[in-house]
Amino acid sequence: MDFDVSWLLLGLPLAFVLGWLASRLDLRQLRLENRQTPKAYFKGLNFLLNEQQDQAIDAFIEAVQSDPDTSELHFALGNLFRRRGEYDRAVRVHEHLLARGDLARRDRDRAQHALALDFLKAGLLDRAEEALRKLEATEFEAPARLALLAIYERSRDWAQAADVAQRLESSGQGSFGGRQAHYLCEQAASCPAEGDGKQALGLLQEAHRIAPDAARPLVDLASWQLAHADAQGAFATLVDLEQRNPASFPLAAPLLVQAAQASGRDAEALALLKAHYETSASLDVLEALAQLDRTEGAARQWYVRHLERESSLVAAARWIAGEKLEHEQFHPLVQRALDQAVRPLTRYRCAACGFEARQHFWQCPGCQAWDSYPARRTEEL
Known about the structure:
Layout: H1 5-49, H2 53-66, H3 71-83, H4 87-99, H5 105-121, H6 125-133, H7 141-154, H8 158-170, H9 177-189, H10 198-210, H11 215-227, H12 231-244, H13 249-263, H14 266-279, H15 283-292, H16 298-309, H17 313-321, H18 331-342, E1 348-349, E2 356-357
Antiparallel strand pairs: 1-2
């Protein structure tokens, strides 16, 4: 059978034309997709810069549908959902990323970290902890450990918090000695009240060893010693506190009065309080001086001396309480008004968030910061 060359001559141009048409169609489709995806992406970015989050989310969803393999769009969308408080949608976006088999290792770790933040913001601490633990030995290890530390502090799991703090310090992420001392003091405070209390004593001594200049281990140790009839030991502990951390000494002034009265060392305590007051006057030290100084009219004189040194409505109210007024029948009314006025001035205020409280906190109940409460009342700040 002879081969007809004419068919070959006709077929070659036809194949060329068909191939050219196919390539043109592919190029047109590619150009169309390239135009659509950036357009949706930049539209979403523009909405985001104008703080129009609803429109930005719609634009990003459109971009993700056009190119579902673009991981950066997924991350942008997930972060937007989290910022809006739509944690369930953020979780779905990041879980979808983790389910992809072609995701690079770094993007997988990034998605795992984002998922952990979703759970943390949603208050699902157990799921957040599980997600954060999967980030060990990744570039997100340090922020994951810090997040774990916050979780254990919120759940008051002080043993786990101490372990994470130790690992952070060992990896060069900073000094966590002060926090570890707080964790030990918290554990000591939760020890059973019955028994000889040796476990609590050991924890407080260890806290002092870890952070020798920190105020809390010494204050808590003095309180423990007073509770266990060791007034002499408490007195020595508080003297040590005044030398190591004089700025925090006003917190311990009431304890020093108790220790001095129980051990018969009023004169020594009075001398220590006077010396401290001369260098740094404070309302708590003033109250301790007025309580310990037994000479005639000494308490009122201390309040007058404080008023000469600085204007203080608190000291004025204390002085008036012990004075006889010309119209004494109105004294209770005046005193009640003064006490009401000075009450906000005797609070403590967090230096980090401004949260005010009647008592001093080592960890702010508002922002969870440690050692953010100065040892001075709001009137003195």
